[in-house]
Each structure stands twice: as C-alpha cells, then as structure tokens.
Amino acid sequence: MDRLPLPLEGITVVAVEQAVAAPFATRQLADLGARVIKVERVDGGDFARGYDTAAHGLASHFVWCNRGKESIALDLKDPRGLDLVRRLVGDADVFVQNLAHGAAARLGLDAATLCAAHPRLVAVDISGYGASGPYADKRAYDMLVQCEAGLVSVTGTPERPVKAGIPAADIAAAMYAFSGVLAALVRRGTTGRGGPVEVSMLDALAEWMGHPLHHSMHGGTPPARTGLAHAVIAPYDAYPTADGGRVLLSVQNDREWRRLAEQVVGRPELGTDPGFATNAARVANRARTDELVGKTLGALTADEAVARLEAAGIACARLRDLREVAEHPQLAARDRWREVDSPAGPLRALLPPITLPGGDEARMGEVPALGQHTGALLRAVGMTDDEIAALRRDGVVA
Predict the structure, then answer these.
(1) Residue 152 CB partners (closer than 8 Å, separation 6+)
(2) Fewest CB within 10 angstroms: 175, 316, 335, 337, which?
(3) Is 230 a known active-site residue?
C-alpha cells in the first residue's frame, strides 16, 4: 500500500513573525509538509535569534520554533521590500503575522486587508490582547499575559506565586493559530474561500485556565497554590528518596490508599484508621500523611520507590530534570529523536507529537540562517540577479 503524503504538501505559508507565538505555529505547519517562507528584518532578523547561544552557538528558542523554513530578509519600511512581501503573499495559501498592534494594518498586511485582496487566502493575526478593547495597545510578553490570565495566581507555593517555566501564553496562542489555520483550510476546501483568523494570547491562555476559572466563577473558591501537592487530594506530592531523587505519587481514592498502606508503607492498619481511611481525613491530616509516606520513600532509591509503587498499582513519576528528559527511556524506546540540520551543524530535536501512521514522517527541515533563501525566493518572483544585487546594495534585502 502506498504511503500517504504529509497533509499540508502543496500549501505555501508566508509569515512575518518573531519570538515564539507565530514561529511555533508555523513550525507545526512546516512539520506537516507546508512550505513556510519566513520574512525577517534585514538588521538581525527575528529577534529570537539573539536570545541566547545555547544551541551550539544558536539561540535555543529560534532552533525550537523555526526548523523547516525558508528565510528571506527584507526591509518592510522600504516600499520595495513591502512590495516583495505582497508578491510572495499573492502566491500563498496562508499568511501569518504577529507584529506589534497596528503595525500590520499600517503596512496593509493585516488579515482583513489581505483577505479582501486574495479571497482564497487564510490570513492569521496573532496579538497579545486582541484587536479591540482597552488592552489592545498594551505590550504583551508571555510573562505579562501569564499574569493577566491568572496562571501565575494558581502556580507556585502558598507563600509565593510563580510564572510557568515555559512560555505558556505563547504556546497556547501558537497552537490555536495552528488549529485555526487547519480549520480555515478545511472550510476553504468546501467553500473556496479562505478568510481571517484571529488569535490573542490572553484569549488562548484564559481558555487553558478552564478548571480553576470555572471552579471560581461558579461558586467555588480559587484553588490554593500548593507547589507539587494537590489542594484537595492527599497523599499527592513529590517525596525525596535516599539517592537524592524525588518521586511524585498520587492516591486518587481510598482503595489505592489501602494498597499504599499495606504494600508500600507496610502498615495495613492505616487503611482503616479513621484518621487516614478517607481522602477528607487524609487532607485534614496532611502533615502526618506526608510524614508517613515521606519516611517510607526516603529509605528507598528512586528506582526502588517507583518499582514498589507500581507493583502496588499507585500512580507515580520521577521528578526529572531536563538532562534526564533528554535521555528519557520512553522517548528513546519509541524512537522520538531525530537530527535537524542548522548553520551550527546537526542538532537533536523531538519528532512533533502528531503522528500519522501510514504516512510520511514529519518533515523536520533545517534551521535557516538569516536570509539564506533571499536570492532564490526573489528569483522565483521574477527578479533578475542585477535587480537583486541593487536591492542588496540599498539594504532592502539581505
């Protein structure tokens, strides 16, 4: 049986993008087979290129979000550079931008303007807070939106709220932009028309606040910050082990508690003790419950603790650092790692989470150098080498 092609083969995307939200969205499209043309500034390109040098001299954010794209460097403030983007968009299926509020509209690159000129185009505007309202002009970096969306209020310890350790607002917006593009392309397949797609970081992350938000809105109290513990379940926490590790376990019901008491703690009488027999009792007696579990796991290595918990049917996990994640046995056993080319040489990267059995593997193309494809793309829209050289001399392209 013939293998199926990647689902976005033949789709061309033009992206005027920077940082994380739009680049991560368009990387998903590239992984699934789309041709993604990344428009960057001539003076340094996407500013995420300069965040750090951790990936063999390249920026880790940029490596993560930009594989498989073609880079063209243009000065959009020069009419000639802006005209080149419009020529690229004329042959595209999708356009994505996450410029500062109002900037795309001033350039005529907002979704409404482009879709009016190109009815089959799917055009995506990604913003911090949306196109209208009192926050429309407000600067929107990931940490700021985490605060505005309430994520920080439920993350951390009782004493101190903390931001998430990943750019959750950027990622949320990226994934809704990605799914919005796919939905709009399906609709175009039945109607022949593309249309605008709007995604804001605040809208996206507020949606992800679903459980605590609904719990608070509809009569409950806001969930307490409990670190790695659970506000209403005990035992549910990470406990130190004898070898310096930490193992998190979660007891979801009283049957599991009885198994934990008998097979792990070695005190079966705790399964029926009124001070511990129900979850409500264990939450009320949390300090003593944690002491009993902690003393048991503290005498075991992390491997021994996990083995004993799994034998008793108790949900558990090792608290891994990032180096351990990079060597995770499950990821290795499922062959999830690949190598991606880059200007710094091959770099390890995870296969994208969407797996399409029976089809081609995700296309994990190289991470582009700034302006690596400028010449080829300009020749493709009909420019001569002399014209390109003149634009380079004038600083319009790089």
Answers:
(1) 146, 161, 162, 163, 164
(2) 335
(3) yes
